[in-house]
Specification:
- The chain has a three-stranded antiparallel β-sheet, with no helix packed on it. Strands 4-5 form a two-stranded antiparallel ribbon.
- It is globular.
- By secondary structure, it is mainly α.
- The protein folds into two domains: 20-178, no CATH class; 182-227, no CATH class.
- It contains nine helices and five strands.
Length: 227
Amino acid sequence: MSFKAQLKVIDGIKKDKPDYFMLYLNAFINEIERANKKYETAREYDRDTLTKLIWTGVKTISVSEQTNDEKVLLESRLPLLTFINGLMALLTPKEFEKIFPIDKEFNGDKWGMKDYYYTRRYIEEFGENRVIGDEIEEYLWEYQNHTIRFYMVKTLKIMSNIRRLETGKGIMEEFLEEQGVPTYTMHEDLDNKQYIENNQTGEISEVKKPRPRYLRVVKNENKKIML
């Protein structure tokens, strides 16, 4: 007795990607509303409230996507960033590490990068039971944790985009120009050809893409043929 399987391909059900920004933002707003009913100022927050607000606030910024460069929208993020940084400034490094553990990366010396040992030495010199306070921005840049890293990158991007809308140049562009390093802008025409423009001199150069290794030139009497 033979058996023949009858198989049929059907389309799977596509699931919408979760909007993590809205999820974290809503959680952050809910925590703020609960805290406002219980406390007059942020300095009165208990450690559990402080931890929840810092975690949801940092995650809100770190997963945010900036697709709109309107100045009003960008500037609306500044009070939020100031508030979140102010909350983190109330912590000691020991308390901060409980929320954002140091990344377990140990080969930083080999590559000339910050790692677990670098952060640990920094905390020891800073004082693990000392309130971070006004040194919060420096502390965040020195601290090695992937969530904090995303948070700081997004913060810098917000500030840079605001600067670009005001002056026509972002923070990094201004820094590179001060160092005498030219910057370039990539353009693409209607024929999908790419070219770059030197932002300092206005010089334009065509982008020449490298030929794939699997292609070789075969010479003909009249023309070259790519195989």
